[in-house]
Every structure is written in structure tokens, then in C-alpha cells.
Amino acid sequence: MFGENLYSIQPGIETRWASRENPEGKKGQGGKARNGRKGSAWFTLEDGEDATLAHAENTSGMIRRIWMTINTRNPATLRGTFIEMYWDESEKPAVCAPIGDFFCLGIGRMAVVKNSLFSSPEGRSFNCYIPMPFRKSMKIVVKNRSGQQIKHFYYDVDYTLGDRIEENALYFHCWFNRENPTQMGRDFQLLPFLEGQGRYLGVNLGIRCDRTKYFNTWWGEGEFKAYIDGDQEYPSLCGTGVEDYIGTAWGQDYFYDLYHGSQIYDKENMEIACYRLHVPDPIYFHENIQIMIQQIGGIDTNDELSKAKFHFHQQTMGARYRSVNGYDIDFVAIDPTIVLPELFEREDDWSCCTYFYFDKPQSDLPILPVEKCLI
After folding, report:
1. Helix residue spans in 221-321 (DSSP H)
2. In this structure, are residues 96 and 142 in contact, taking their beta carbons and an 8 Å threshold?
């Protein structure tokens, strides 16, 4: 999967684990607390505190796996505890995201998820298997801004040192975004405009639908759009709907697979977390990239309108306003002749954790303020 066979060894590569039993990942220094009888398996992370999980200096290497778990896994800690990663002495993190969303567990809720890059096999832990090369140094930090104490924080970071990093090897990045609510008629950003070379690796999406405005109507007609290498008004890559983008069809429900899934589909509260990983189908960019997704809903006029007691905003892009079954509905149709299903712009709570490789150890992407992340 990662371009390495399992039966060869590169001369000079050393394996290290950083954990609370050996925070520096030093040779022959693990498990010393309590005379080697499991004396430091976890640590306490108070609200407002930071902790360095792993770091290495003056060496090349590769992060191979990250595992962690915490005793309190609620919306406050999942969205208010952040993981940051720094490569090659950069001052700005290449990764800054809530730990739940980073580990493919969106909307502040734990779930069972198993895919090619992440897993939480019983919904109680966090695992990441993305290879993350560095040439000079690395540092991984967690920051607690949840308003709660995390009494038991367990982790290990598994990495190698001395790797021969190829000249064209890229740095791992991720970007977290949230809008609550999104803006009517304006596409939600999965990745803002970014200049450079790299590979879009995938995204973990979170959607919390506004049931007050939209009842339980379908939310996922929006198209995925990737603007690549100079695309202007229209993108080179365009999908056909959210559920289509994540590899299912005709609506959506709970499922998970190697490269796509919906690890949360709460029909009662209309809360969704889903992912698409571009492992077998790479999206490369050589000059620049920008990725968006629309917030468009749909109603089958033969079925849903009789049940839908709500009023959609009239200030929609190109809306056609009319009354159907006694209810005032604003519609946006791709083609005026198309009435089944009717399409309409929505405003919901959307979030994303977007994973990508980039040719620089840091980017100029904005970091979302803590208060905008919290649920």
C-alpha cells in the first residue's frame, strides 16, 4: 500500500516509539517508571495545557502510525482538544485539527470506523496509518482547550529515523474548516486556494442538518468540485452529489469501507459523518488547487412536500418562488423543466478535515479559531 515490501530492510533505519513510558523515544529508555512495572502508561492533560507527544531533531524519518485514547470522549473533548504537527523546524503547524475530526471521527461523536488510513475498531480509540516523512525534524503536540480535564491520556507515536527521503517526497498536511451555518448559495470550502504541488488525499465530512428549517428532507445533492492548475469559473473535476462522492447512491446510510464510508448516519437528529479517501484514485496538482462542495438539498414532490411544514428562505441564488400544497417553497432548479426532484439551497452546520500532501512543510492556509470548532 505504501510502496514498501514487508521483507526488506533499509540500512541505518532505526525504529522508535514515543509514549508516556518513553516520551523522547530514546534507545533503551522505555518503561523505566516504577522500576519498569507500568509506572507511566498515561498522563493528565488539564484544560489550557499543551503536551508534546513526540519530537525528533537533526534527522530524517517517517511517522508510521499514531494511536491514542482518552477517558472522556464527549463533544467538548473531541472538538476542543487539538493535534498539531510540525515538520522541518517550521513555526506554523502543517496539521492543526480537533482530535476527533483528525482521526476520521466527525461532529464530536465517537463511532466504529475502519478504513485504509484510520480506524476506531470499537469506537473507543484513535488510529492513523498515514505515512508522514520529514527531512530534518518533527514535533507532534496536543492542546486541551475543551474546558474539561482529560484525566487519562494514552498514546504512542510509532516512527523510524534515518529514512532516505526521496527528493520528490511531499509533506503531510491537513486542514480543518467549519461553518455554522454555511452561507446560502456559497460553496463550502474543503480546501482554500493553495499554490504549489501536491496530492489531495481525501476528506472527513461532518454535517449537522438544520431540522427547524428543513425538516428531515434530503441534504446531499451538492456537487464536489476540484479546481486544479489554473481552473477558473468551472472545475476540472466535478461530482454528482455528496453520497455519490463517497461511493454510495440513492441516499445514504451507515457503512464503512477501505476508501469511503458514512461512519455516522443519525436519522433522528439528522447528523452525518462520512469520508472519501483518494488512495487508489489520486488527485494531483502541479500549480494550485481549490476544492469546494455545495450545500444543496432535494425534495421528491410526490412524497416529501405533503410532510414538509417549513419555509425555505427566498434569498436563494436564482430561486423560483411558488406555493405547493399550501406551503411557500423557494426552489432552485438546474433546468426549469426539472421538477422531480426539486433542488434548493440550504444552510446547515458543515465541517471538514481535509488531508493532503504538499511540497512545503507549512502552508499559508488559515487556522480556524477554537471557538468556531466547538459544538
Report:
1. 242-245
2. no
